[in-house]
What we know:
9 helices, 6-stranded antiparallel sheet, alpha+beta
Amino acid sequence: xxxxxxxxxxxxxxxxxxxxxxxxxxxxxxxxxxxxxxxxxxxxxxxxxxxxxxxxxxxxxxxxxxxxxxxxxxxxxxxxxxxxxxxxxxxxxxxxxxxxxxxxxxxxxxxxxxxxxxxxxxxxxxxxxxxxxxxxxxxxxxxxxxxxxxxxxxxxxxxxxxxxxxxxxxxxxxxxxxxxxxxxxxxxxxxxxxxxxxxxxxxxxxxxxxxxxxxxxxxxxxxxxxxxxxxxxxxxxxxxxxxxxxxxxxxxxxx
Length: 255
């Protein structure tokens, strides 16, 4: 099991706050397809990802689905459920196997309410996530399948730091809101340019710079947002957030 500090949110917390969470957490392995929460339902557990990749997906009335956000070991899966009792229309599933620390949702609610430090950091990271959701929604509507696939592969690599990603064309089609046949054509074109190699369900990124030229500007926006998460974490590692939550507007990320 990967160290708890490989999760960016946990690593940014004071030792006291982190240990308060860890004493209630259970290490778990997460195979591909693990469902974290379903649409319209409160999760039973929340997860601090340590490795792997998760997708937040919306499925509409005709059964088609599209990814609206991607999560790696930077925050807590299901954090949006801490904000209130609204029925969230998305579900979250593991797309690359990995590991996590699992905590009961009710316990996480209690920790969230009791710790100003945890609450402030979770809210700041959720703000970044919601901004990324908005960007990806626009991307799925406005940009070509090639641009979306390139953006998606680059973001997946950023979050996993892996050069090889195990995804079928069918799964990628769901992630970027298109048809499987379209993904096959686009992936073949990217492979012809030697940007990627696709063999037996595994995509190898061969030329990242080339892939960036194929992506839309949304990739740069999402990458900047992800860099912002790491900046938040680095800042809090250095100075910490007040345990009683009495942070200034600046420390809470409000301008």
